[in-house]
Design a protein that fits this description.
Elements (H helix, E strand, L loop, with lengths): L4 H11 L3 E5 L6 H12 L8 H11 E4 L1 H4 L2 E4 L9 E4 L3 H9 L3 H11 L4 E5 L5 E9 L2 E2 L7 H23 L17 E5 L7 H16 L7 E6 L2 H10 L4 E7 L5 E7 L6 H16 L5 H18 L13 H12 L13 H17 L14
Parallel strand pairs: 1-9, 1-10, 2-8, 8-9
Antiparallel strand pairs: 3-4, 4-6, 5-6, 6-7, 10-11
Amino acid sequence: MGKSLMEIALQLKGAQKKVQLIYAFNGMGKTRLSREFKQLIVPNTDSDEDAEQTDLTRRKILYYNAFTEDLFYWKNDLEFGADPKLIIQPNEFTKWVLEEQGQDQNIVANFQHYTNEKLTPHFTEDFSEVTFSLERGDDVRSGNLKISKGEESNFIWSVFYSLLEQVISVLNVADPIERETDQFNQLEYVFIDDPVSSLDESHLIELAVNLAQLIKSSESKELKFIVTTHNSLFYNVLYNEVKAKSGNILKRYEDGTFDLEEKKGDSNHSFSYHLFLKRTLEQAIAQNDIQKYHFTLLRNLYEKTASFLGHPQWSDLLPDDRQLYLQRIINFTSHSTLSNEAVAEPTEPEKQTVKFLLDNLINKYHFWQQVEQNDTRN
């Protein structure tokens, strides 16, 4: 019998761990879990005291999820020649970060670090709009640009990350009386749901390392962190960097209930290698250069995935209607024992089987797939 997301939230709260990492496929309910957890820490009320409620929320929990991005939207009436602007909807969170905490320059620095040092955000005086331009030197800049979706996601993450840096720095002062502000004194949790997933692998690894270092720098005994992601590489790097002893996988059952399965030890370390296997197979398929050893890699990839997902047999992940047939093909081509079975190059149908089985693993079991962003500055 599964649990509700509120029961999962209670489980997370009851664990009382400094850092809890959760891996889940897309569509499993990570974002909904972040909202349930927020509701658990600071329940909504039906009163008219919305401002006070928002203030209380930000003091006890900070959370980043898809709804954070909804605070920003583009106004680009190109039909009438208007410059593209990123509008910040009136809300307490960005008002707190930008107006009260003065994080605008830190946001610019963090954003440029992960994108382009010449791509510069410009805030209006009231922090209601942001425009972007390329600084070309000698006080020359481009006109206003509409940045890519990936860069936009990066910018919004930079807003949250800049605040988080300040929060941890302030709370690391042990004596509350000596802190530069008392606005973070009641903070208990930071819940981060899928930070920037549009980065290339090198920047994604760097972001994971930086976030881990920031989390490890927190000396406050009261402040706890929960991070959820569908990105296996991000999870793997973060797990290793924070030196976690266990992680979790969020599962959803057909009846709409959920479970949070603890993953200990080596089961959290298989992610990076499986990405290498995936890339190697994809390259071989793209170049039509599938060799016999690729069947061994394919089987290894199935074994790694099955082990992580808790299946006793890797063949459990094969399509049900062709399971026995496909299992025999992989076993035969990857574990031949007789010399006359050694074939220099697989047949065309066998090559197609490699592609079919890799697609099955990626699509059915929701491997992370980076979507290239269109750059509109060309």
